[in-house]
Amino acid sequence: MKQTKLCSWHQRHNARLIEFGGWLMPVQYSSIIEEYWAVRRKAGLFDICHMGEITVVGDQAEEFLQHVMTNDVSLLAPGDCLYSVMCYDHGVLLMT
Q1: Nearest 5°: phi and psi at 20?
Q2: Are 24 and 49 in contact (CB under 8 A)?
Q3: SS3 call for 24
């Protein structure tokens, strides 16, 4: 089963983890009511590392990604991930 880069953080914070689409994902930490109020009063975190995964390889991979992505991919180290928007050449968002 795949694990997101945040999986160990979820485990350290006592998340109840379940299988979701081949990924080990947090579903709950305490109670739904406690989590609701925590988000309403402070903030919440939703791990989306498992979404929209693509792999681009080749000599011009970084150049291509810099052209189509809205974030700076040059800041990534090998094995890192980035959640970003991908655009067509004319700037319109690529939707799936």
Answers
A1: -140, 105
A2: no
A3: strand
